[in-house]
């Protein structure tokens, strides 16, 4: 098997602002990974995020370290053993592991001439509607963004700033029929969060994602016992081992391929979450249609989707999953079904 990669800078249509200023940006540096086996090429993508210890340089360094191991791989159907080998060579580096894991699924699907969802026994009809994310901004810019998202029946609003109440009122006025979810990205303290969540409940918000910081375990338990709305773990739930800590603190978890290391691990998390009666959303980073489509392939297994990362880009270098009034439309092609966009 051969591996090559290409660093890419993805520009967003709008500057992406959330409750943490250090995470605001309009350019996201990802890495596109290509595996090649007996003339078949397969794609994966690393969307590194520094709060999880990854960036474009660490992804490339990991790929360079793994390259000699990957190039000794003979049998593309030994995914479990191959990913275990990468784990034994380098811990963490989950964004880079996700790129390789998703590329292996793409390769296997192409060899079997089946879409990944078909290989997993899933139905393309059972996909959820994806939310469309509205980043933090002035009321005027938020109004504009909500108008641009008119075809999306589910909006996810980033909050955690001083203008939250006003912004939510603008969204409600502009999109009276929309389902509204809220993501505070660790932006609140417990008492403030409870007060805000009561107001959000009055405005018909569906659920609240990560109201408190990930290390505030006591606060999360306190809030969970009092919150009138369901609470979702994102920063508090990176991997399989985090799920047990979400029980009694959250009602739902947000699984992202870049946090957990790829489809193989995400499938294990879905099983564990079900065993603990946690609802599941599949989320994303700012990423192209490669990794968005990879996540969409397993979306028939989850309750909610927030797979708008590619839709927020000014230009998406790949084609893949589509949207029909927000509902995910899986591509028919084998593997992930992604293709490089012709320019
Ligand atoms: Mg989130």
Describe what you observe in this structure:
This protein is α/β, with parallel strands linked by helices. About 35% of the residues lie in helices and about 20% in strands. The chain contains twelve helices and 15 strands. The chain has helices spanning about 55-70, 80-90, 95-110, 115-120, 140-150, 165-175, 190-200, 215-225, 245, 255-260, 265-275, 290-295; strands spanning about 1-15, 25-35, 40-45, 130-135, 155-160, 180-185, 210, 230-235, 250-255, 280, 305, 320, 320-325, 325-330, 340. It is globular, with a radius of gyration of 19 Å. The two termini are about 30 Å apart. The structure holds magnesium ion.
List low-confidence stretches: none
Class from helix and strand fractions = alpha/beta
Estimated helix fraction: 25-40%
CATH homologous superfamily grouping of the largest domain = Enolase-like C-terminal domain
Number of strands: 15
The helix count comes to 12
Query: What's the level 1 CATH class of the largest domain?
Result: Alpha Beta
Instruction: Tell me about the largest β-sheet.
Output: 8 strands, parallel
Looking at the overall shape, the CATH architecture of the largest domain is: Alpha-Beta Barrel
- Strand percentage, roughly? 15-25%
| Helix-strand sequence | EEEHHHHEHEHEHEHEHEHHEHEEEEE
The separation of the N and C termini measures: 28 Å
Number of domains: 2
Q: List the ions, cofactors and other small molecules found in this model.
A: magnesium ion
């Amino acid at each position: 098997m051969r591996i090559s990669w290409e660093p890419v800078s993805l520009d967003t249509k709008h500057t992406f602002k959330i409750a943490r200023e250090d995470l605001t940006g309009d350019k996201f540096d990802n890495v596109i990974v290509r595996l090649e086996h007996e003339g078949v090429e397969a794609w994966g993508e690393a969307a590194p995020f520094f709060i999880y210890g990854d960036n474009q340089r660490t992804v490339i360094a990991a790929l360079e370290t793994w390259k000699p191991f990957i190039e000794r791989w003979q049998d593309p159907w030994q995914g479990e053993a191959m990913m275990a080998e990468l784990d034994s060579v380098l811990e963490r580096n989950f964004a880079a592991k996700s790129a390789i894991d998703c590329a292996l699924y793409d390769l296997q699907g192409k060899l079997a001439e089946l879409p990944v969802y078909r290989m997993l026994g899933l139905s393309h009809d059972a996909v959820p509607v994806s939310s469309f994310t509205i980043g933090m901004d002035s009321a005027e810019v938020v109004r504009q963004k909500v108008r641009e998202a008119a075809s999306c029946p589910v909006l996810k609003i980033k909050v955690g700033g001083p203008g939250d109440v006003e912004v939510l009122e603008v969204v409600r006025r502009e999109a009276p029929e929309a389902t509204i979810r809220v993501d505070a990205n660790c932006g609140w303290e417990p008492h403030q969060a409870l007060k805000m969540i009561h107001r959000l409940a009055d405005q018909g918000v569906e659920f609240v994602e990560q109201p408190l910081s990930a290390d505030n375990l006591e606060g999360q338990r306190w809030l969970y016992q009092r919150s009138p709305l369901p609470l979702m773990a994102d920063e508090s739930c990176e991997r399989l081992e985090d799920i047990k800590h979400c029980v009694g603190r959250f009602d739902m978890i947000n699984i992202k391929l870049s946090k957990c290391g790829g489809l193989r691990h995400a499938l294990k998390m879905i099983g564990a979450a079900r065993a603990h009666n946690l609802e599941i959303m599949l989320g994303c980073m700012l990423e192209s249609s490669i990794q968005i489509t990879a996540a969409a392939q397993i979306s028939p297994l989850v309750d909610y989707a927030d797979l708008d990362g590619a839709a927020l880009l000014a230009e998406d270098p790949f084609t893949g999953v589509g949207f029909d009034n927000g509902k995910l439309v899986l591509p028919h092609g084998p593997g992930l079904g992604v293709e490089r966009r012709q320019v």
